């Protein structure tokens, strides 16, 4: 059995599957877009650098055609002083040793061609064609860095434009990819809504007839059968109430009133008595005193019922369910013993149609409704699931806000 750590979930920051998928896709798309931009930037940088070196090479070669004959005359003794080039610093090397001239930095790489070191550019010209085997001439100039400035200016302008295009394309693609999900959810909503219309009459009839039966006159075996029928009908009735609140009436149906929440808590515990008895669950309730809140009473009942229903559904047989109200903290806690919620699902359990345990039945809307009702009234939800125990804690604000 996997063990999960504790986690606190704020209902004000519930992430729904559609939004999470949208964000994940856009994030992945932007990461890929940034990689493409970086790759294009590297290619553009190398291209700008190569273009700059090619321009310097051409300029130095043209200057060398004028300068090198003077250098040869100096080597042959026709000119006494080492010739200076007006455009570039020059130096003369034999093998790896500098014989004459002056350059701004020591040259260690004397292979023929263009070189760039630190902030200087130099051309190494072999002198073999002039009959000076092993000799090399170096022509050097400082890099004015103008090409770097141009590179950054163009990168910012065109990079921003390309990034905006990629971003808009990603958003458009994400909406396109989300269409099947939206269509599937809409189809499921439509199906559930149609089904809900057909549930009310048979469920009401079952519950009414079960309540009218005189269970005292039946034997123990028959009473257990009737209890199972009543529990099943109550379960269907709870599902009907959830679906009606979610899809038909809407969460703002009805008006708020001031009532004793702890009195309602005891009412709901009595309602769930047969369901707890079916699994031999012992309920330890510590809800003393009075605690008045201003809420829609039906929605408060749905809030409590869904948490009690989950406690009954996911508890191991012959265990205890603890229901505790902390008057000072204004906190209601419902805890059961059973398989913990997997860590990767802990932050998603309030999403619509999300089920932490697919082995159990249900539509996956109970906790979603809990979160919506709690968010409406500013109630903070904390979920802890570890060591084979799961606890939901609802903390009421110091004042109850008006309905949205």
Tell me what the structure shows.
The chain is of the alpha+beta class. It is built from 8 helices and 12 strands. It has a domain at 251-395: 2-Layer Sandwich (Heat Shock Protein 90). The chain has a 5-stranded antiparallel sheet, covered by helices on one side. It is rod-shaped, with a radius of gyration of 40 Å. 51% of the residues lie in helices and 18% in strands.
Outline of this structure?
By secondary structure, the protein is α+β, with helices and mostly antiparallel strands. 51% of the residues lie in helices and 18% in strands.
Helices, strands, pairings?
Layout: H1 17-75, E1 89-94, E2 97-101, E3 113-117, E4 120-126, E5 135-142, H2 146-212, H3 220-249, E6 257-260, H4 261-271, H5 273-278, E7 282-286, E8 292-295, H6 297-314, E9 320-326, E10 331-337, H7 343-346, H8 366-376, E11 380-386, E12 389-395
Parallel strand pairs: 7-9
Antiparallel strand pairs: 1-2, 1-5, 3-4, 4-5, 6-8, 9-10, 10-12, 11-12
Helix pairs in contact: 1-2, 2-3, 3-6, 4-6, 6-8
Total beta strands: 12
Specify the structural class.
Answer: alpha+beta
Q: What is the H level of CATH, i.e. the homologous superfamily of the domain at 251-395? A: Histidine kinase-like ATPase, C-terminal domain
Low confidence ranges = 1-15
Order of SSEs: HEEEEEHHEHHEEHEEHHEE
| Strand adjacency order, main sheet | 2-1-5-4-3
Helix content: 40-55%
CATH topology of the domain at 251-395: Heat Shock Protein 90
| Molecular shape | rod-shaped
Mean pLDDT: 81
Gyration radius from CA atoms, angstroms:
40 Å
Largest sheet: 5 strands, antiparallel
CATH class value of the domain at 251-395 = Alpha Beta
**First and last CA, distance:** 42 Å
Number of helices: 8
Strand residue content: 15-25%
Mind telling me which CATH architecture of the domain at 251-395 this is? 2-Layer Sandwich
Q: Give the oligomeric state.
A: single chain
């Amino acid at each position: 059995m996997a063990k999960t750590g504790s986690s606190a979930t704020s209902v004000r920051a519930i992430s729904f599957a559609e939004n999470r998928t949208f964000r994940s896709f856009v994030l992945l798309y932007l990461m890929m877009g940034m990689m493409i931009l970086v790759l294009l930037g590297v290619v553009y940088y190398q291209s700008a650098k190569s273009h700059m070196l090619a321009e310097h090479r051409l300029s130095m070669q043209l200057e060398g055609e004028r300068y090198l004959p003077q250098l040869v005359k100096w080597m042959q003794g026709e000119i006494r002083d080492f010739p200076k080039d007006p455009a570039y610093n020059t130096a003369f090397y034999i093998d790896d040793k500098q014989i004459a001239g002056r350059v701004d930095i020591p040259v260690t790489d004397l292979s023929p061609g263009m070189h760039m070191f630190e902030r200087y550019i130099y051309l190494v010209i072999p002198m073999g064609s002039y009959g000076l085997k092993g000799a090399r001439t170096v022509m050097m100039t400082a890099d004015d860095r103008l090409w770097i400035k141009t590179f950054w200016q163009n990168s910012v302008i065109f990079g921003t434009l390309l990034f905006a295009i990629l971003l808009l394309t990603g958003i458009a693609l994400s909406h396109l990819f989300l269409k099947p999900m939206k269509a599937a959810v809409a189809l499921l909503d439509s199906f559930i809504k149609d089904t809900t219309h057909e549930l009310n009459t048979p469920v009401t009839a079952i519950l009414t007839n079960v309540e009218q039966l005189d269970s005292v006159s039946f034997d123990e075996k028959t009473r257990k059968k009737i209890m199972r029928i009543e529990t099943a009908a109550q379960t269907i009735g709870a599902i009907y109430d959830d679906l009606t609140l979610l899809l038909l009436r809407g969460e703002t149906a009805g008006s708020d009133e001031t009532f004793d929440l702890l009195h309602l808590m005891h009412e709901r515990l009595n309602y769930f008595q047969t369901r707890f008895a079916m699994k031999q669950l012992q309920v330890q309730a510590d809800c003393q005193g009075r605690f008045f809140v201003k809420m829609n009473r039906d929605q408060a009942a749905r809030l409590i019922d869904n948490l009690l229903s989950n406690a009954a559904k996911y508890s191991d047989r012959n265990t205890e369910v603890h229901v505790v109200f902390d008057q000072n903290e204004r906190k209601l806690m419902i805890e059961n013993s059973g398989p913990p919620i997997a860590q990767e699902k802990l932050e998603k359990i309030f999403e619509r149609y999300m089920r932490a345990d697919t082995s159990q039945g249900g539509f996956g809307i109970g906790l979603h409704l809990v979160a919506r009702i709690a968010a409406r009234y500013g109630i903070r939800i904390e979920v802890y699931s570890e060591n084979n125990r799961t606890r939901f804690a609802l903390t009421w604000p110091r004042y109850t806000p008006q309905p949205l």
